[in-house]
Amino acid sequence: MAMLISSLSFLVLAFAFFFCHVMSSGSYDYFQFVQQWPPTNCIVRTKCSKPRPLQIFTIHGLWPSNYSNPKKPSNCNGSKFEDRKVYPQLRKDLKKSWPDVESGNDTRFWEGEWNKHGRCSEQTLNQMQYFERSHAMWTSFNITEILKNASIVPHPTQTWTYSDIVSPIKTATKRTPLLRCKPDPAQPKNQRPQPKGQRPQPNSPPQSQLLHEVVFCYEFNALKQIDCNRTPGCINQVNISFQ
Ligand code: 5GP
């Protein structure tokens, strides 16, 4: 009897330990590796430190995500960001691939991303591995070049369909990426051409939206790229402007 009780207590304790570990580090299904187009940050958020934003896709973050809610997990418990773990060569690499394009404070940007997202997958990638993997993902495919080779280059008025932009990236990576867009603040709200004599519909969609981010998805261990599930990141059927 005593043996049975002690075995049961051990099992309960082991389960409690496992449960606490999962809750503190966060559980996730896959990674979203998010790269952003800095000029769009500067258009949609008025503060940008440099007068001319970088003209290359740079890292926004590597986000452990759940299929049921890709915005989760976030802000998990776990080790806080430690600047000393960004050793000199890594710092040099990240300054190229992962700059703070809004206020120029790179370290604070990395700290925010690690504390909000990276800590949730600490059981897979510790802080150093998280930033090393992110930089390696950035170097594996050059989105700016892929789009340029498909004649998709920044233009003030030209627009593309969602699939025009996804296709060349899919061909190069053999995996389906996800696009994320932002509303274009330069566009009046009710843009859709109306039949003669009719007033604009209050909820008519805009004529175009700005390309902001390209997302690659990776399986749980952050090594193998997989297809992203299409979740709404851009408005369906609305052309995309790349400026
Ligand atoms: P998340 O916190 O989910 O990773 O991303 C959303 C936030 O990231 C937004 O508040 C946005 O302002 C911020 N963000 C995106 N790019 C940059 C950047 O280059 N620098 C800074 N400081 N924040 C950024």
Care to give the gist of this entry?
By secondary structure, this protein is of the alpha+beta class. 35% of the residues lie in helices and 16% in strands.
Chart the SSEs and their pairings.
Blueprint: H1 2-25, E1 30-36, H2 38-44, E2 58-65, H3 88-97, H4 106-116, H5 127-140, H6 143-149, E3 159-160, H7 162-173, E4 178-183, E5 208-218, E6 225-226, E7 239-241
Parallel strand pairs: 5-7
Antiparallel strand pairs: 1-2, 1-5, 3-7, 4-5, 5-6
Helix pairs in contact: 3-5, 6-7
The structure holds guanosine-5'-monophosphate.
Guanosine-5'-monophosphate is lined by residues 36, 41, 60-61, 100-103, 109, 113, 116.
Q: How would you describe this structure to a colleague?
A:
This protein is an alpha+beta fold and 243 residues long. The protein has a single domain (27-192, 202-241), classed as Ribonuclease Rh, Chain A (Alpha-Beta Complex), CATH 3.90.730.10. It is 35% helix and 16% strand. The chain contains seven helices and seven strands. Strands 1, 2, 3, 4, 5, 6 and 7 form a seven-stranded mixed beta sheet that branches. β5 and β6 (225-226) form a beta hairpin. α3 (88-97) packs across α5 and α6 packs across α7. The longest helix has 24 residues, at 2-25. The chain starts with a helix and ends with a strand. The model is unreliable at 10-24 (pLDDT under 50). Guanosine-5'-monophosphate (5GP) binds next to β2 and α4.
